[in-house]
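Our platform keeps sequence and structure together, in a single record for each protein. Such a record has a labelled line for the sequence and another for the backbone structure tokens. The tokens are whole numbers drawn from a learned vocabulary of local backbone shapes. The remainder of this section carries one protein's record, kept here as part of the documentation:
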Amino acid sequence: MNFETAGALLSISYSADLNNLKEKIKNLLLECESKEAAEADIFSLCRRINLVFLGEQKFRLNLKIYSKGQLIVYLKKLLEINPTNSHQFGFKDTEILRPPQLGILFGGIDTNLSKVGLDLYQRNSTFKEVIDEMDALSTRNGGPSLSSLIYGENVKLLNSVRFYQIALLTIQVAMFKTWVAWGVNPSFIVGRSGGEIAALVASGVISLKDAFKIVDTQTAIVSQLPLTANLLKVFASEEMVLEVLGGLKTEASVSLIYSPSLCFVVCKRESTNSILALFNARNIKCINFDIQHVGYHSPLIDSVLNQIESLPDGVEFSKPSIKYISSILGGFVDGTVSTKEYWVNYVRAPVRFSQSMHMAQASGCEMILEICPPRRAQANFWTEKFGMDRYFQSFSEDGSALVGSLETILKLASLGFRIDWKRFTREM
């Protein structure tokens, strides 16, 4: 399989040596105008040119090519590059120079993690190194090994809040580091709910070791709570949901604003029927998940907030090295993540996912790569609510990275990302 081209994409990478660039273009023009080229299709010609320029490092020009005549016109135009302003070409209907700005999304507690990434764990050194590091941290603290938790005999422990969140942190950081090793570098990091801490690691705010300390300590506290909460999916705006709930703030609260017209509500299990009746009376569609959990992002967790606000000793914070948009803050992360207020809000405040997605798009994010196994609803959320036609996945729906990441990396390469093909093919 040829990974360097996808469709009629002309991808020219070049250095600051414009004389060398122009010499190559002259030779390619002769080829394109030859009798042999007249019999070749546009995809073959673009593939040939892309391979000529493969390996150059400084600049990249991506052009959509629809005909052989257009290809020849563009190559001639490239011969007119001004050496003092070589990054501006003035082409119409083209994608020039840079890949789209990518946001990597770290999702929350809503995915089955059993066996996720097993194929990568067995053959990818970067992915395995993170699993092994977390193995050591967990066993040193009296917990199960992460490999047995996700892939082996301890998989049933994923039913507990504590070990699920440790596994979620592990898989997300491992997959993120694997993408970076393959040459996929994001412009934005977006964290949602339980994915916030992995996102803090990815953006350089905290170390993986400190992230483990935080998750292990906080989930041990939360795990002491009784499973008295239920979850409702309400097809209405936050304002409408709050209006319907009225004075029932101790019985139910908005836990997640997923989109402008979709919210999730945490309520006491014994109050479920009365709350459903309130929404039915207003003709608002509401789905009862009928599950038992501790009640993250609701008043049901208030009794342990005084313990949550105290972080483990020795946790260090840095400024983000990648722009990080938090769904807890509803905006960009700054120094507030080191405060007690942030960590209380991390477990208690509603997750403003819709707001963070709007913030990402308004700030220039053009495409999203999701770290955890996908849910179809999330893809639809991007394409329908934000008009995004670039939504990519790390895993297939069964947790396989061989299928999910292969399809994604081919698309990313076609958009101009510099993929380390030798490493990717060796490890896949």
The longest strand covers residues 252-259. The longest helix spans residues 161-181. Confidence is low (pLDDT under 50) at residues 1-7, 83-97.
